[in-house]
Design goal:
- The structure is a single chain.
- The chain has 572 residues and is an alpha/beta fold.
- Helix content is 33%, strand content 15%.
- The protein has 14 helices and 16 strands.
- The strands form four sheets. A six-stranded parallel sheet has the order 5-4-1-6-7-8, with helices on both faces. A six-stranded mixed sheet has the order 9-13-12-16-10-11, with helices on both faces. The chain has a two-stranded antiparallel ribbon with strand order 2-3.
- Helix 11 links the parallel strand 12 and strand 13.
- Helix 8 packs across helix 12, helix 8 crosses helix 14 and helix 12 packs antiparallel against helix 14.
- The longest helix is centred in the N-terminal third of the chain and has 22 residues.
- Its main location: cytoplasm.
Length: 572
């Protein structure tokens, strides 16, 4: 087994992570359910890659994500930072070394759990009752909570990422940054996050939590890190990733750099805009140095993008947009946990398994020394029937802006994953049908990449109950794209759509040049050039002139890698 440890840093990153783990939990449940589709029972995925086994003090078996979450204090809502499996009692620390007087504790009332979390609690109590032969006891519980009420409750009021999480976490997983509360407004730039992290003992405490999960791995294949890149958490992430690079130099880190589209909706003055531009450049430059592959996601308007042509997204709701980014993350990481067949054996359910190291080498290694990849997604993926093959590649849309379209790049490298595909008559497509469809699509394509790797799985993306109402009325029950819209429904969720086919593509291409050039241009204009108006701001973030020029050099090298001989290596 080749284990992966997951890190989620920042509020929006944890929204994405919550959906991601819901997908995994749904797969686990469907694999064991006698009523579920055979495609979920035979998914040929090794869930141990992401999960760890354990045991409580009472001797109960546990199966929890191998994950460390970092967020504001108070960001867990009604959920305890110790989780609910191990029932550890938090020690009350009443020692105040500089104060000899009386100490008073003010405790706020715990937040009330929403309908979804109440329903989970009731299900668990019911299971415990049956285990202890208590199911004949008088049942005075309130009326059963209906799925429809849960969906409506979540759609109208999600404040915390834990509000829709259906997963049990290990006590070492959930870390809150003491002293930084969830309603803080100042943590909006790289400098503040860096200062907040360095001013406490957070580094050692988070390192210990990560070490707990890494050291129990037999053969770790890598660390996947989701970062909320929009504010100070990118500074927190950089400090944490520096420590990881020092302690685990041979473990590849794949960075999923995410940005909430609702932040683009806020109007900004000139001063805020300059701070925003500099934050973007500094954050991207620093984080890219601390990973092997960086995957930026974050459209200014996900709802208005072509990636959402079959969706009904509300950009102001992180609950909505994070579901799309989590779906894409589940899809492109699926090859990391595909069960390997023997050298001469062919699986009926999966093909093209990759590990994280292989993906990094393919996209950022010897073929092309470019570590910034574009993530394209088709959600849901179209049919792979003969008449749809010509437009199949055109349905893959990027999840970042400033991307060149229809660019001819004869050195492009990509890896694609398609899972749960359907063919004519909405039948499940076989692995060979998927391979043939992709090959045919490339035959119709104007330009073909220098190298392309295809992974495929017959298992679609399962839609768990707490998934938002984001599917449009052209999406059927199994994610098939309909010819006529469903009447009387503008948006649908898990009650109407049970699973969807997905396609994602990671590509190393010159199409990303405008994205990189914009960051480099803003850093030079506002932070490096003589008399740059943002230089004092960067200094207040703790960066001297030489450090800023070094960051410009990092961005410049990214550009010259894709556009040789046009940019000098000088940063001025």
């Amino acid at each position: 087994m080749r284990e992966i440890v997951t890190i989620q840093i920042g509020n929006y990153a944890n929204f994405i992570g919550s959906h991601f783990w819901n997908f995994q939990d749904e797969l686990l449940g469907l694999a064991e359910s006698p009523e579920s589709d055979q495609v979920f029972k035979n998914h040929s995925l090794d869930m141990d890659v992401l999960y760890r086994t354990g045991e409580t003090q009472q001797g109960l078996f546990t199966y929890t994500p191998r994950m460390v979450s970092v967020n504001f204090q108070g960001s867990l809502g009604s959920v305890s930072s110790r989780g609910s499996l191990y029932n550890q009692i938090q020690a009350k620390n009443m020692d105040v070394m500089t104060w000899k007087g009386r100490v008073t504790t003010h405790a706020s009332e715990p937040l009330r759990r929403n309908l979804f979390l109440q329903s989970l609690s009731e299900e668990e109590q019911e299971i415990v009752g049956k285990t202890n032969d208590l199911d004949n006891v008088n049942n005075n519980s309130p009326a059963e909570i209906q799925d429809k009420d849960i969906v409506e409750c979540l759609e109208s009021d999600v404040q915390y990422w834990t509000d829709f999480s259906k997963v049990h976490y290990h006590p070492q997983s959930l870390y809150e940054l003491s002293g930084l509360w969830a309603d803080i407004q100042e943590l909006d730039n790289y400098g503040f996050g860096k200062e907040a992290f360095c001013g406490h003992q957070h580094g050692e405490e988070i390192d210990d939590r990560l070490r707990f999960f890494v050291e129990e791995c037999d053969h770790i294949q890598g660390i996947q890190c989701i970062v909320d890149d929009a504010g100070g958490f990118s500074g927190v992430s950089a400090m944490f990733l520096e420590s990881i690079a020092d302690e685990y130099p041979n473990v590849p880190v794949l960075l999923y750099n995410a940005r909430n589209p609702s932040l683009h909706m806020d109007s900004k003055g000139l001063k805020q805009a300059i701070s925003h531009y500099l934050h973007d450049a500094v954050s991207f430059s620093r984080l890219s140095e601390l990973c092997k592959l960086i995957i930026p996601v974050g459209l200014p308007s996900l709802s208005g993008s072509r990636a959402s042509q079959f969706l009904c997204i509300k950009d102001e709701k992180p609950y909505h947009s994070s579901a799309v980014y989590a779906s894409a993350m589940h899809s492109f990481t699926l090859p990391f946990r595909m069960k390997q067949s023997g050298p001469s054996a062919e699986s009926l359910y999966t093909s093209g398994a990759l590990d994280m190291y292989g993906t990094v080498q393919m996209l950022a290694g010897q073929m092309r020394q470019n570590m910034v990849t574009i993530l394209d997604v088709a959600i849901p993926a179209p049919s792979v029937s003969d008449r749809a093959q010509q437009s199949f590649l055109g349905n893959l849309q990027p999840l970042i802006s400033d991307i060149l379209e229809d660019v001819e790049d004869f050195h492009a490298v990509e890896t694609m994953n398609i899972h749960g595909a359907v063919t004519s008559g909405n039948q499940r497509a076989s692995i060979n049908e998927v391979k043939d469809a992709v090959e045919s699509a490339y035959d119709y394509s104007v330009a073909r990449p220098k190298f392309s790797h295809l992974s495929a799985s017959t298992c679609p993306l399962p839609i768990p109950l707490p998934f938002p109402l984001i599917f449009g009325n052209m999406v059927g029950q199994h994610g098939e794209l309909l010819e006529t819209p469903i009447s009387g429904s503008s948006s649908m969720g898990s009650l109407e759509v049970h699973s969807i086919p997905m396609a994602t593509r990671l590509r190393s291409s010159t199409a990303v040049l405008p994205f990189l050039e914009r960051k480099l241009g803003n850093l030079r204009r506002f932070g490096i050039e003589r008399g740059a108006v943002g230089a004092p701001l960067l200094q207040s973030w703790g960066f001297g002139k030489d450090e800023v020029e070094d960051m410009g050099e990092v961005l410049s090298k990214m550009v010259t890698t894709l556009k040789p001989y046009q940019y000098s290596s000088d940063s001025d």
